[in-house]
Amino acid sequence: MAATTLIRSAGAWPARSPRSFVLVAALAWWGLYRSLVPLSETLVGALPVARDTHLGAALQFFFYDTPKVLLLLTAVVFAMGIVNTWFTPERTRALLADRSEGVSNVLAAALGIVTPFCSCSAVPLFIGFVQAGVPLGVTFSFLISAPMVNEVALALLLGLFGWKIALLYLGLGLGVAIMAGWVIGRLKMERYLESWVRDMPRVQAAAGADGLSLGERVEVGFASVCEIVGRVWPWILAGIAIGAAIHGWVPEDFMASTMGKDAPWWSLPAAVLIGVPMYTNAPGVIPTV
């Protein structure tokens, strides 16, 4: 959705007092986040279910992880909605055009993390990058990184599994994007482009400021939360429900024997094959993981 449309769909408070809105929202977010554990235990205690049963453990997991994931998702989507007001497709193309090989791959992969483009945008972005004079290898570093390293997934991994797992996810995603783009660039695969794409006239990408005020940028972030969280929350509930069932009823030794460090050789390719048809939003998948 375009920034102007997002601005129109947002409420009035963020635009009138953006700093006070952000301050109040941050304080409310932190207060809710700190109360998740006692709140989940209180909810389970109020139900006619023993805490030490499978159902009790599953309910506590569900009552704790559901608001936690939604809070993390809300914070990340809000922040990235503001960041994305500076990263239009035109500006991204301008940043990547006329750069040297190597460093440009790193820059392109890093930009792929913070820009709001997914794999469904690959074809029009690809053509736009070619028109802007971006080398093919650099283009692929960006296009691989954009859907592979998801900022929401990164924040959820940080909140749910700690900084080591989040850093591993970030490093491997960037590494794959950088190396794949560098290899494609060294192979000089421009010759395999369709002639109509290769012969398209070069365009000068616009990189000027879009002129949005702080209040408008905050409104974009607020509207992004309303749109994205409003769309994915059923998938979040479904993913956490599955995770809660696994947490409550599936024995840990079974999971360890199937996908642990002593798992059979076929466990990794099996996990990959299971994950292929589950290509969906990160908030719905990570709670299951």
What does this molecule look like?
The chain has 289 residues and is mainly α. The chain has 2 domains: 3-85 and 219-285, no CATH class; 90-198, no CATH class. The protein is built from 16 helices and no strands.
Number of domains: 2
Describe the largest sheet.
none
* Spatial extent as radius of gyration: 22 Å
Class computed from helices, strands and strand pairing: mainly alpha
Overall 3D shape: flat
β content, as a range? under 5%
Order of helices and strands: HHHHHHHHHHHHHHHH
Q: Which segments are poorly predicted (pLDDT under 50) over 5 or more consecutive residues?
A: 1-11, 203-209
Mean pLDDT score, rounded?
75
Give a count of the beta strands, DSSP E runs of length 2 or more.
0
N- and C-termini, Cα separation: 30 Å
